Amino acid sequence: MEKVNRQRLQSLLEQFASFGATGENGVTRLSLSREDIAARDKFIEVSEEIGMSVKVDDMGNLYATLSGKKDMPPIVMGSHLDSVKKGGRFDGTLGVVAGLEVVRTIVERNIETEHPITVMNFTNEEGARFDPAMMSSGVLAGKFAKEDMLLSADTEGVTFGQALEISGYEGEAGNRLREAAAFVELHIEQGPVLEHTGEEIGVVQGVMGMTCCEISLKGESNHAGTTPIPMRKDPMFAAAQVIVDLQRELKKLPEDLVYTIGRIQAHPNIHTVIPNEVTFTLEARHTSMDVVRQVERIIDRLPKTLERCEVTSRKLWGRETVEFDGAVVNAVSETAAELGLRTRNMYSGAGHDAQFIASYIPTAMIFVPSAKGYSHREDEYTSYEDCAQGADVLLNTVLKLDRNASTQEEKVLEEKSV
């Protein structure tokens, strides 16, 4: 089994961490910002140094490709270089940097692959500057319309289309990822499970389905000091009761259901005024869409009035569970076992570019442990040895997929010739 160069991988991760460094070991590298452009420039520099050719598509996605022995669809690795504000240095970046190290190792060991090998950097995965998240992979997969995405604006009023043009990274639609033998994304877990169980590699089966609903409670504003409690229509107390009731009901569902009250808003949100409306969101995720639907039914059964306040709800958005390709997932699992690593089959609760790419390309993901489960924060951390072990799995998975696909192609040709 091949292994990547540990010191070189760590060095390159640290170099990319300097682009948008916060001073607290984190990064702020919003999509198409100066910091992101600097990271993109570095990506191209390293890719060309390795001997890869680089293309850019019309969404700003970067493709660095090492030629194969045959003119075949590529095997693709990739993730994203953009971050959230005051985010971590490993989220997304690991998958891109490890991909480059994988190709460098292939070149260094004089390994000839049948397929071209491509490393991708997806534009605006985080959605921290431009809504929605996973924007460019969504466009590639036909989930989002490019025309709509170009109009998405940041807090300063700059549209994605304008930022893309200014960045110098607006390429050709003809360079889009349209077919590939496989796509594999290495990523930090962004959760505590692998660290807690002592397992080194997460073999990702797919991405959890989810629903996000908004619950609103309407009461009546009045003076906080002069309105007797029995005469109030206070939606804040009603909201508190609804949240407690929801918690009680949701606990009856499978314990691996995850749910969050993520946003609470009170209007007018003044300490001397009884609010006239309180809204909050409830987001729930599970691998079984039946469980997700049960959550939605629990919300639908909320009382129409509570504490003399009107209660309404609406679904904001949701997604179906995405199942990854069995053959590619098996290649990851077999490779990790051959490397002697402890593995865990798991689903991702977070969204990733891989979930959209999976709609038209055989896809899998590899997770490595996140210390304390921390992510989207400056103290996000994955040990460099864990990063390297993930890169080892990525490297040998790519080589296994190359061999397997080549063998399959030979069988097809033999059958045609008979």
UniProtKB/TrEMBL annotation:
Domain of life of the native organism: Bacteria
Pfam families (UniProt xref): Peptidase_M20
Molecular function per GO: hydrolase activity, acting on carbon-nitrogen (but not peptide) bonds, in linear amidines; metal ion binding; N-carbamoyl-L-amino-acid hydrolase activity
Residues where Zn(2+) 1 binds: H80, D91, H187
Keywords: Hydrolase, Metal-binding, Zinc
Main enzyme class: hydrolase
Residues where Zn(2+) 2 binds: D91, E126, H376
Cofactor note: Binds 2 Zn(2+) ions per subunit.
The protein's Enzyme Commission number: 3.5.1.87
Cofactor: Zn(2+)
Family matches, as NCBIfam families: hydantase, PRK09290.1-5
Family indicated by similarity: Belongs to the peptidase M20 family.
Name of protein: N-carbamoyl-L-amino acid hydrolase
Phylogenetic placement of the source organism: Bacteria, Bacillati, Bacillota, Bacilli, Bacillales
